[in-house]
Every structure is written in C-alpha cells, then in structure tokens.
What does this fold into?
Amino acid sequence: MAQTQLLLFGGFTLAGGSLANAALSRKARGLVTYLALNPGQSHSREKLAALLWGDTGEPQARMNLRQALSAIRKALPSVDDRRLLAHGDNVTLKLDDLEIDVARFERLASGADHEQLEQAVVVYRGDLLDGFALKEDPFNDWLRVERERLRTIWIGVLEKLLHHYSVENNLAAYVEAARRLIGSDPLREDIHRGLMQIYARQGRLNMALKQYAQCREVLRKHLQVEPEKETRELNDRLRASRSVTSKANSTTLLEPAAGLVDSPVPASLRPETHYVKSGGVSVAYQVTGGGPFDLVYVQGWVSNLDYAWESPRLAHVLRRLGSFCRLVRIDKRGTGLSDRNVGFPTLQERADDVRAVLDAIGSRRAVLFGSSEGGVLCMLFAATYPERTQALILHGAYAQGLWSPDYPWAKTREDMEEELAEIERKWGEPWDLGRGAPSLANDTREQQWFAAYLRSSASPSDAIALWRWGAEVDVRNILHAIHVPTLILHRKGDRWVKVEEALYLSERIAGATLIELPGDDHLIWGADSDRLVDTIQHYLAVKFPTKAS
It folds into this structure.
C-alpha cells in the first residue's frame, strides 16, 4: 500500500492509503495541520480547544475537540492504532508513518546541493493551506505566522537557485525561477532587473523591455515610485542595443548580382557571444534576429561565430535567416570560440551540446538547419530528441562520408587522404573554392577571407582531424527514426556532395521533401543564396501557417 501523504502546501490533501478526506471538518483539518507542524509535541486539551473553539465556552469546546480527534483517528488510521497518544490532559499526534510535504520541504531547503533546492521548489506547491481560514483569530494568527515563515524559506531557496543558475549560465532555469519569484513578490525590483539581463543574454530584447515596463507599472501602482537608477540605465542600454540591432537587420538586402552588401559587419554591431557548459565543455553560441521560429544553424567542418561576420556574403545570409527566425548559431566543441583540445568528439556529445544551448536560451522546440557535415549532427538530434525538433532542414548533407558498395556516391578513402594532404600543405593560403563554391573561385577577397576564417576556427592538426571525422561518419541506420517535418535542399551541380546523396536521404526519411536548386555552390553563402533562404522561409510558412502568420 502506498505511503499516506499529508499535503499542506496549496491546500489540504490526504493522499495514499485508505483515507476519508471528506470526513474531516475544516476545524479538524486545521487541528491536523497545527499538530503536524509541531511534531512530537504534547498539547493540552485546553490549549487546543481555545485555539479552535474559543468562542463556544469550555464545555462545548472540549466536546468539539473530542469529536475532531475521533474524526482524525478514522481519517488517519495507523497500524498500531496509536495515531493519537493521550497523556493525562495532553494530546500528541503520532505521524511517524506519514509523509508530510512541509517536513520534506524544510529538509530539502536546508540542503546545500542545488538538486535538493530544486526538489524543495517542486514540493512547495503554494502557500500553507492556501485559501484556508477559520473564524477563530488565535488559529488564523498562528497560520499567518507559519505561512510567512515557510514562504520566506521558499523565497530564500529560489534566491540560492538564481545565483546557482547565473553562475552555471543556465538561463532557461533562471527565467523559470525568477518568474515564479516575481509572481509571488512582484515588488522585487532586483529580480525584474535580473530577468531583463537574462532575456538580453538570450537575445530576447523585446522580452527584456517588456519586463522593465512590468516592473515600472507595479512600482508605480503599489509604491508610487519609479524604478531605481540602475534599472532605468539598464533599460536605456537595452533600447539602444535594440536600435542598433534593428539597423543592422534592416540593411537593404539585395540579390548578390544586384550588389550585395559590400562591407563586413562592424564589431560594434555584432551580436554578443554566450557560453553554456555541456559535459564539462564550454560551447559558444550567438543569438540574432527575431521571429516565430527558433532556428539553429549548424555549419559543417569548422566555424568561428565572430569571424563569420567579416564576410559580407555570409553576413547577408545570416541577416536573411534572422529576418523570420530567432537565429541560433553555435561553434561545435573543438572549433571556433568553443573549448578547443577537448578530444575526439562523439556525435552524441555534439547533439547534447545543441540541447544545452536550447536549454540556455529557453527554447523548447527549434528548427534544426544543418549544412554539409552539420546535417549529420542535425539528423541525429532530430532522431534522438523529436520533442525538441520542430522541423529538420538539410542542405548539401549526406548520410555516409566514405564510399561503400551500397553507397557509391561518396569519396573513396584514397580521395580523403589526398584532401587531407592538400589541407596540410596549403593551410593558411588563400582557399581554393573551385569545389566548394565555383562561383567564387576567382574572387580573391573571398578566398582570403575564407582562409582566415578557417585559421580562426581551428588549428591545422585539429582541422585535419575534424575533416577525417566528418568523412568517416555514418548515420544511415538512424534515418528511419526521423519523424519530424524534413526539407532537403541540394544544388544540382554540388561538387562536394553529389545530388544522389540527397535523393538517398529523401527516400529514407519519412515524409521528407526534396528540392533540387540550380547551381553548383556547396557553401550556403555562394551564388543565389537568397533563393536558398526564400525556399526555407516558404517551407516553414506553409508547414506551420499559424505560427508564421
């Protein structure tokens, strides 16, 4: 039989065992609560009668007490029939075999481990006997003091957790805890201010500014004061930041042939880089743009979040994506601004890194957009975490990196060794884009930028190891496990990944849509990049019309 539970937070509930909740009158429930919060103590009948029936006269009060104690015996039966112990004129309620939520809460709240504190927050479902009151002032006075005592402990637990989440960069958990604290105490300006800062770190500037407006409104209404100078100055900085971001995102976006933005994004307009811990590794990410969708873009091979903005072409694509999505970009572990020299990463570790970033920004579901080897990671994520994946978008992606008889389109091992030798020999020189982006093969500026981009993304030895890693990967056995809306895009003339590999994916991912685009550039920022972005935007608008509207 399940252990009997006495739940006093948020109301009065007896759960488990063979119970008779309805048999207890309101005053009997008040008596149980009073005795339960004073465990092991002996109470005089005179004191208990005065606490709950003080206005009826002593004889009537004692009779009412006897009836209440009898009802408690029936509602809370014990194995040895010793629920109530009488010592002369004193009464003790024996609750050793009951699980009482208040007692459990206080034990957990006294712990130092954040997991115990999180459990304490879960146990605290609401104020003690929330909504419960009697006509007797002595009992109501006692209940008011106990409610405030427990509520103060709960607030202290939340404050400890906020500090922990801030240190650990767990932004999503911080937001949840802070919202709960403000819901209980809306005048806590310091918590409003903390939420504004966390929203800004998540790239949710509008939410940060709304939080300031809420703070100002509640302070004016209840205290007739304005927010503190520190809060006002934070609001001013966020408004200025939104203005700068808006200017950056509203820059005229022309077709490349008509004159693409011809300068890199200035450092002052670039988004802030954030970090989240995943398996002991610091993973870097940036959040830009805004829209009804969260879209995580995972690039192939190596990357550098900051240096990407040095390319007018790549910056153009990122701005376009950010015009209809909240764009989230990461540097995979071992590359770019994330921790380097972290050993040989597994695909599952990288998938968990993406999940950690989504948790940090408070995203429950996201569109995963993977290009080239980044598509492999996105496919594993979609198969492993379908509840976190709104849709899967692949561009220039593949299921297996090396040739086999049943996968004859991939490069051979000899081809891979030749590529590795060339990478080692020419590392640091202007990059030959003849295969990756033939349209840019004669663009000296783009070649130089790409070479510098690669140097900032990885060391020569790491780049070689990661190239080999990307070639030796094989996710064919998980394709059948992908059951999310999937769009597969591929350039018909792609020289790095053959179009047959896109067809292979489309035939094995249930319900996948395959669109072959004209052109032969493998890199997403090559020629006709706007067509690529337009196709993604159209797919999401059609697939999720309510959200896109």
